[in-house]
Specification:
The chain has 135 residues and is mainly α. It contains four helices and no strands. It has one domain: Four Helix Bundle (Hemerythrin (Met), subunit A). The chain has helices at 14-35, 39-67, 73-97, 101-133. It starts with 13 loop residues before the first helix and ends with a helix.
């Protein structure tokens, strides 16, 4: 059971779509590691990747939102902040306590909900707005 990029996740902004593809590749690696019984070893790598990568990804999205005066910039910013906070909390717990099963479950849940709720809804709305603004 992996997760792969689907064109239905495309928001029509190439740079952002490429970043989303990269996020999905890493999430898929975690799912594959979990299926192979290596999830605990993969989780710390994923959390470190997410901490660094999403910072750049969010900056890129937010820059576009400011550039084109996206009307839901503040709401989008809050969602980004919430995601970063949850990743950092997981990192702190893993650093303090080691990787536990609940960390794997929480990370999988967080990433799946993020894909379903943020990319397919909030980012999709952003994509529609940006594509209209550029035409």
């Amino acid at each position: 059971m992996g997760i792969k990029w689907r064109e239905s996740l495309s928001i029509g902004v190439e740079d952002i779509d490429n970043q989303h593809r990269e996020l999905l590749r890493h999430f898929d690696a975690l799912l594959g590691a979990c299926e192979a019984g290596r999830g605990r070893g993969e989780l710390k790598k994923l959390l470190d990747f997410l901490d660094e990568y999403v910072q750049q990804h969010f900056r890129d999205e937010e820059r576009l939102q400011r550039l084109y005066s996206y009307p839901d910039y503040e709401g989008h910013l809050k969602e980004h902040g919430s995601f970063v906070d949850r990743i950092r909390t997981l990192q702190e717990e893993v650093a303090r306590d080691g990787v536990a099963l609940h960390h794997l479950i929480e990370t999988n849940d967080l990433l799946f909900k993020w894909l379903v709720n943020h990319i397919s809804k909030a980012d999709m709305s952003l994509g529609v707005f940006l594509n209209k603004a550029e035409t």
